[in-house]
Amino acid sequence: MAGERKVGVALDYSKSSKMALQWAVDNLLQKGDMLLLIHVKPSKGDEVRNVLWAQCGSPLIPLTEFRDASSMKQYDVSIDAEVLDMLDTAARQKEVTIVTKIYWGDPREKLCDAVGDLKLDSLVMGSRGLGQIQRILLGSVSNYVLSNASCPVTIVKDLKPKH
User: Fold this and answer.
1) 61: helix, strand or coil
2) What pLDDT is attached to residue 48?
3) Among candidates 2, 34, 12, which has minimal Cα distance to 145?
4) End-to-end CA separation in angstroms for the chain
5) If 156 and its partner were Cys, which of 20, 42, 62, 146 is the partner (CB 3.0–4.6 Å)?
6) What is the Cα–Cα distance from 142 to 128, expressed in whole angstroms?
7) What is the distance between the alpha carbons of residues 56 and 114, in angstroms, rounded to a whole number?
């Protein structure tokens, strides 16, 4: 089955999403897999230059373009050196193809849409670690995706205790 899988990682550059990316690289990716980074930006209505992108997201962005700050500026996404280092290492050592897709809107819905649109075999995402009250009031993206995605979902939690 190696080389045929599409593994998605929800990436918002938070500590938990970087942990999810590292977990996917270390534990899930195999030679020949495709790693799809899924980034969801809040919809403000004015940042989407292309009406089509508002509904189905950006085109797939290859790692070479993702590395280029000027290319990513058109998507209003900043480059993160730690993430680029992880991706370069994964591409080289695991021999995987890496692409990014950007969506605009509610992360809960857009991540579930991405699973179907991209035909993902699995999705890995971090957990913000909300307390029970916050999770009830704000809603949990990870709980929603876990319940509604049409593929297996792995939630990577920070095991370090909060002080």
Assistant:
1) strand
2) 47
3) 12
4) 43
5) 20
6) 9
7) 9
Q: Which two tokens stand for residue 121?
A: 């075999």
Using CA atoms, how far apart are residues 16 and 23, in angstroms rounded to an integer? 10
What are 97-149's pLDDT values in tens digits?
Answer: 999 999 988 899 999 999 999 999 999 999 865 555 554 544 578 888 988 99
pLDDT at res. 137:
46
Tokens (6 digits) for 80: 């993160």
Query: What single string gives the DSSP state of each residue in 63-127?
Result: HHHHT-HHHHHTTT----HHHHHHHHHHHHHT--EEEEEEEES-HHHHHHHHHHHTT-SEEEEE-
Q: Cα(160)–Cα(163) distance, rounded to whole angstroms?
A: 9
pLDDT at 160 over 70: no
For residues 45 and 155, what is the distance between their CA atoms, to the nearest angstrom?
30
**Which tops the pLDDT comparison, 24 or 46?**
24
- The DSSP call for residue 37 is E
Beta partners for residue 103, in sequence order: 40
Query: Of 99, 105, 92, 94, whose CA–CA distance to 118 is shortest?
Result: 99
- Between 72 and 137, the more confident residue is 72
∠ CA 109-50-125, nearest 5°, is 30
